[in-house]
Amino acid sequence: MAAATVRPLVTVQSLDGNMTTNQTTTLPLPDVTKAPVRPDVVNHVHAQISNNSRQPYAVSKLSGCTHRAGQVAFGNMCRGCRMFALTKIYRRWHRSVNLNLKRHAIVSAIAARLLFRLF
């Protein structure tokens, strides 16, 4: 059973930091703490967003094949030659993530942080 359903009220202290005074109030937990914990959504959103910080790299398509004139100089298996299907800079490096999916991941992460059984 989740901690949000066991303890629906939270005690809030005053801002001065003095614990001896009785200026405490009890407030209900926000609804974000009662959200379902979805680690698959959090992992998916994190993996997709972390792809957005990558820098494109590629191999020059003109590299290699400047020696061994007339011999098997263009084969993919030959030493010092071009590679087949070389990496391109127009590869799909970045990923877009739906805004509602990002919001669900944030809410799920906050709800998971407040569960006592995960500590």
Structure explained in plain terms:
There is one protein chain. This protein is an alpha+beta fold. The protein has a domain at 60-90. Helices cover 26% and strands 7% of the residues. The chain is built from three helices and two strands; from the N terminus they run H-E-E-H-H. A two-stranded antiparallel sheet has the order 1-2. Helix 2 crosses helix 3. The mean pLDDT is 81. Keywords: Ribonucleoprotein, Ribosomal protein.
Keywords:
3 helices, Ribosomal_uL4_euk/arch, alpha+beta, ribonucleoprotein, 26% helix, two-stranded antiparallel sheet, structural constituent of ribosome, 7% strand, 119 residues, ribosomal protein, Ribosomal_uL4_dom_sf
Short structural description:
Belongs to the universal ribosomal protein uL4 family. The chain contains 3 helices and 2 strands, in the order αββαα.
